[in-house]
Request: fold
Amino acid sequence: MSVQGKVAVVTGAASGIGRGIAEVFVNAGAKVVLADLNTAQAEATARELGPNALGVAMDVTQEAQVDAGIDRAAQHFGKIDILVSNAGIQIVAPLVDFAYKDWQRLMAIHLDGAFLTTRAALRHMYKQGTGGAVIYMGSVHSKEASPLKAPYVTAKHGLMGLAKVVAKEGAAHRVRANVVCPGFVRTPLVDKQIPEQAKTFGISEEDVVKNIMLKGTVDGEFSTVDDVAQAVLFFAAFETNALTGQSLNVSHGWSMT
Ligand code: NAD
Reply:
């Protein structure tokens, strides 16, 4: 089981976990399309990764951009075998203070983005008739809740539902759908939250890391970008419907469900 010669689209691939997934996939012999809002960074990363990588401009909330970006990916590398729906943001605030526009923005990126990229990728996969894999970047927050993260927890739980529907509809086409659920990983998304939470809770940044972020882990350690990328690679390479509609925690035991 391998991704050798397969074509993968990774959203949010200009930074953090998405970038790590792109690197791991290229090293495993896949061709990777790095789709991101930050076009310059996606293209620069693709250049670093070599001819088996392509940077593509894509705001995952914009239907026309998603359809055009996925079509361009298929045209450039000839097909689409794997979609990693990874683009995401975090906005942290108590529910009573949450601005509606922030709720809508977060939901749009995580859920509209997952829907639009899935629909565009499935159209190619079904037409090709050679199966495929869709992997959603969930979170421990697909299964657990934390204060201050209402839309994020809601959206990440929602991705579990979407994956199950894609698993059922995709089965006849040998398209599998699964969710990878990381705990905290040191990326720009998490680095931004540390001072924000310190301010909200009136504690030190060290306490945010130790007593909030890593409190539930078995060993007080962050998961790494590579840990998450290897789990995504596993789902992408696994070739039968034996593993579909599933989720895998990569969280140092923070969630065991
Ligand atoms: P990051 O901020 O490092 O990277 C996110 C990328 O998504 C950026 O390149 C950004 O430009 C891109 N992006 C944002 N909005 C976009 C849009 N509308 N269209 C296209 N691209 C867009 O974040 P990260 O930590 O690498 O997070 C990646 C995913 O992993 C997210 O879905 C996040 O929720 C999830 N996740 C992260 C952690 C963590 O601890 N870092 C834990 C669990 C889940």
In short: The chain has two domains: 7-183+224-250, 186-222. The helical segments are 16-27, 39-49, 63-77, 100-128, 150-170, 188-201, 205-213, 225-237. Residues 186-222 form one domain. The pocket of nicotinamide-adenine-dinucleotide is lined by residues 11-12, 14-18, 36-38, 58-61, 86-89, 109, 137, 139, 182, 184-185, 187-190 (CB under 6 Å).
